[in-house]
Specification:
The structure is a single chain. By secondary structure, the chain is of the alpha+beta class. The chain has three helices and six strands. It has one domain: Nuclear Transport Factor 2, Chain: A (Roll). The chain is about 20% helix and about 60% strand. It has a six-stranded mixed sheet. A hairpin with a 2-residue loop joins strand 5 and strand 6. The longest helix is centred in the first third of the chain and has 9 residues.
Length: about 110
Amino acid sequence: MEAIRRGDVEALRDILADDFVYRTPGNADAGRAGFLNNIASAPVEVLSIWGEGLHVLVNGETAVLTGVQRAKYRADDGAGGVSSVAFADVLVKRGGRWLMVLAHGVELPDAP
């Protein structure tokens, strides 16, 4: 999450598998390169980012991380807000390293 806040594509590249897929409802899947490009060219500044309700399930060489990612942001026009995304990330152990192969995110409605 911190790498996303900083827009640190190099740090993200190190944890994403070559066959990584980012999936969100209503949008085309993004591969590793597309996801990294989206992070690098985000039209907002992420001021802070944190996770809530995080849970990890490890089953052999596969792990699933679920929770809600919240991010406080400011757009180029000065408008800001808080984004809330429920997510499930799937990681696999390859060559002794954990690599993310799938990130699935669902934007949550604004809280009342």
